[in-house]
TrEMBL record:
UniProt organism field: Eubacterium callanderi
Segments forming domain OmpR/PhoB-type: 124-222
Highest taxon, organism lineage: Bacteria
Cellular component GO terms held in the UniProt record: cytosol; protein-DNA complex
Name by which UniProt lists this protein: Stage 0 sporulation protein A homolog
SUPFAM superfamilies, sorted: CheY-like
Function (record text): May play the central regulatory role in sporulation. It may be an element of the effector pathway responsible for the activation of sporulation genes in response to nutritional stress. Spo0A may act in concert with spo0H (a sigma factor) to control the expression of some genes that are critical to the sporulation process.
């Protein structure tokens, strides 16, 4: 059962939306303020957030930024404002759809299901962690939706870390894995440099990702503070 957080200050409208979503088999939670929504987002991961732009103690755009710092939860804006600039701003912040009030609940449900279908396909193709999105097949990576420029060795390291979360990868294991088909050799010094460069490209004040295990190697900590 997919969990949906509905952030809507109009209690009657929010309750009606939740009621209809639950008839469709979704599990919903309704909150009516920016503060409440922030707490719920910190408490757990949601499979979708439906977010009103105009809240009594804040705006939905600021909340969307907070959500996007945490993960790539499917996000739909729900608002009475249909100005092009606001709609564009919503999409620039990573919204998956933008629904204006008043709305037809049957159409809203269709659009919610469409977003779920799109994001499920996307998640199968992408490795998503914190503010990183990595496509191993295309050998591309983005941070906060901006492309990362990685060398082949850095990308190979990133792939090894992402596919072994929470495991200590010894320097020996990494060195053996970094041999390529042409037999090009990566020594200890080169490994240290490449890990350092990769770390500098992917980490920031929010996510560290790679933890050094002194005397052993490295560990991919994912979204946890390293």
């Amino acid at each position: 059962m997919k969990s949906i957080l509905v952030v809507e200050d109009d209690e009657m409208l929010g309750a009606g939306l939740c009621y209809n979503l639950e008839l469709e088999g979704f599990k919903t939670t309704l909150v009516q303020s920016f503060e409440e929504a922030g707490k719920k987002i910190e408490e757990k991961s949601w499979e979708m957030v439906i977010l009103d732009v105009n809240l009594p103690d804040g705006d939905g755009f600021s909340l969307a930024k907070k959500i996007r710092l945490k993960d790539r939860t499917p996000l739909i804006f729900l608002t009475a404002c249909d100005l092009d600039d606001d709609i564009l701003k919503g999409f620039e912040l990573g919204a998956d759809d933008y629904i204006t009030k008043p709305f037809n609940i049957k159409i809203v449900i269709k659009r919610i299901n469409a977003v779920f279908r799109r994001t499920e396909v996307s998640r199968k193709e992408l490795f998503i962690c914190g503010n990183l999105e990595i496509d191993f097949e295309k050998r591309t990576a983005t941070k906060n939706e901006k492309p990362l420029v990685l060398t082949p060795t850095e990308f190979k390291l990133l792939q090894l870390f992402c596919k072994n979360p929470g495991k200590v990868l010894t320097r020996k294991m990494l060195l053996e894995s970094l041999w390529d088909n042409e037999g090009n050799f990566v020594d200890e010094h080169t490994l240290t440099i490449n890990v350092s460069r990769l770390r500098s490209k992917i980490s920031d004040d929010t996510f560290a990702y790679i933890k050094t295990i002194y005397g052993m190697g490295y560990e991919w900590t994912g979204e946890k503070d390293a």
